[in-house]
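Appendix B. Chain record.
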Amino acid sequence: MGKILDQIKTGKVLVSDGAWGTLLQQKGMQPGECPEEWNLTHPDEVFDIARSYIEAGADMIETNSFGGTVFKVEKYGLGNKVFELNKAAAEISRKAAGDKFVIGSVGPTGKILMMGDVTEEELYAAFAEQVKGLEAGGVDAIMIETMTDLDEARLAIRAAKKNTSCEVFCTMTFEKTVQGEYRSMMGVSPTDMVETLVAAGAELIGANCGNGIANMIGIVEEIRKANPEIPVLVHANAGMPHYHDGQTIFPESPDEMAALVPKIIAAGANIVGGCCGTTPGHICRVREAVDKM
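Structure tokens predicted for this chain:
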């Protein structure tokens, strides 16, 4: 099947998967449980989620490993199981994917370099341990995602490049400021991101979470102004969340999301998938919209 980047080079627009956390909760995961531990304790439920996205038409699925660094899992007493948890995550998605791609999810550690919470060496080592587990379990690419700090993103990319032979992707999360500009929580703009992540060795970049597709269009346009060539991935939320009766509601229906797919592709996205609030239903409609184009 070649690599993901080879498929993009042929001019194909690819479809990725949607949210995992929401679906894990629907399967019975309780607040305060470690999602990654489910790869060992509830592998069938995790497999069902992965498979549901393949059946919805996704070309690639992620792994249940977003919080898979030692810094996250040690809070659950699982600090000595990082490799095992990530390998299991990759094996489950690999089994579900069949001949489709698997992208290993690597999220932020929650540690802030500039606050002195952690050293660069410690961050690098944590990411290295995680990506080795993901590669051992059979992922095609490492997907470093939801980053807000360029230094942390850079270290994660370096760890993935040096410790695996996988393709390495990286996305950041941006929010719209009152001035109408896009910035990460640490003040990084999409333009800043492009230069740093490409120089660090990311082979595909983009944005996830924080916005529905409507706002992602402006982010992709800004990325494309800074770099017309680099492949771009978007994992958008199902609209902007609002709170209702103590619940977080993502209002965008599958049809509403799909209606914006032609615009995000026109802006320059090569891979389109979902983040918070998106379901296999959303991905199914995104698939149909991509196929129509």
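Further analysis of this model is presented in Appendix C.
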